[in-house]
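2024-03-11 09:14:02 DEBUG pipeline.ingest accepted 1 chain
2024-03-11 09:14:02 DEBUG pipeline.ingest length=490
2024-03-11 09:14:03 DEBUG pipeline.predict start
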Amino acid sequence: MNELVARVLHRWNPEPRVNRLPLDVRAADSRLNLLLVCRRWHDIIVASPQLWEDLDVRMPLDVAQLVIERSRSHPISINWPSDISNNQEIESSEFLDLAIDNSTRIRRAIIYASPSSYLDVPNLRRLLEAPTPLLEDLTADCELEDSTSDGDGTLNEFVLSEGSFLKHLHLYDIATPLDSPRLSNLITINLGGSAVPQSPQPLLLLLSNSQRLEELHVWDLRSSTGDIESLPSTSVTLPRLTKITLGNTPSIYNIAVLASIHTPLCSHVSVKDRWVENERSSELVEALDALTWCRGSNLATTLTWGNGSRPVPDWLVVAVEGDRITVKAPETELQLSRDDISRILARLGAVFSQLPLAINLKIKLERSIDLLPWSERLDTLNVGKKEAIRRIIQQLSQRHVNPRNGEMDWICPMLLEISMWYDWGEKEDTPLDGEVLLSLVRQRWSGEDGLAAATQPTSFGFLCKRALCPNLWSLNDQIKQMVPSFRFID
């Protein structure tokens, strides 16, 4: 039966009026038209309550009532989008009553309260606090200007009714107590704005009760107590978590969460800090950074040494652009945005200095960093912007004591692929840029000073416009005599 209906829905050509409706509303009208095809189809569709499970506030009220009738006792889904037309405003209150009257059948709810959705905070609360024993998937987004209050100074918070465990929770600017029994064993947690608790403790308690959790997203926290005195003494293990996003939230909050969880299967971590609030918070962030970024820590193990569930990676790519660091491995990715980017780079460098030698490290930079912690494993270097290139070149011209054998060696002795590039429209500083580049080549690869030359790179490209960098381009032949793989790229 389902195969028959699906095939007919695919072939049926909707009337122009239906074509103008949203896709999720069009489905209901398509079923009404299919009722007219023939008696067999009519009987099949009328007898299939699962085909009548979707309610949308943009439906005509009589269609919505028919959906309720035809779906019988089958679970239903409610969709209340953020923007509905003026003529739908007239019926929105009746639709709200219809939804609340049938709330015990709601399995999935997507609700946006906004000035153009004609759903104010009191009615949003009425809908969210209605009996929903079957509810599994809840999205509630409050975009109202007065979203922190319902008019009498009461915080905009709702309490879920009793019922089965939710699977997916997405809240923005409307909160609910995170210790609700219905929030145990969530699969997806997505909290934003005032839905995020100001202290990480309630969130960590929720995580400790969510052993099925696969995705965690916390974002847009506007203020934080900075209270991390009572963090759990042992980390919260989340055996199924694969994706973490902490976005536009305070440094102290993010690092407290990261330091308190163990995620053996996590493959994607994205962290964008909002601020370090005060000197004490800055000190706490530094202390927690030391715990989070060390060998044996959760994130370091996930990214570099493997964790039993996946092998040690063959390669790592580290990209530094502005205040953002991205670390990629074959099966994992980490993104960090921090104001104190230099401190995080130093921490990461210390972690990567202990990598197994078999891991090939590739770095892409748009700012200068200290290469020494990355030196022994770096085989590919891609660096852009003139000032960063100069500082990196100066480091590559140096030798240091190799900590493994105590002998003098070049910085980044395994470096085989080099790519340097100027930003679009960047002009050379004559003759400084040419002198710095030529000095690097002579010191590192010519052997002119009597020291053993570094290993020749297999490729060395320098991208800059010939018209803007004529002095650099004039050095092409001299450089190629010492480094045959070198080439300028216009």
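2024-03-11 09:14:41 DEBUG pipeline.report DSSP finds 16 helices and 21 strands in the chain.
2024-03-11 09:14:41 DEBUG pipeline.predict end
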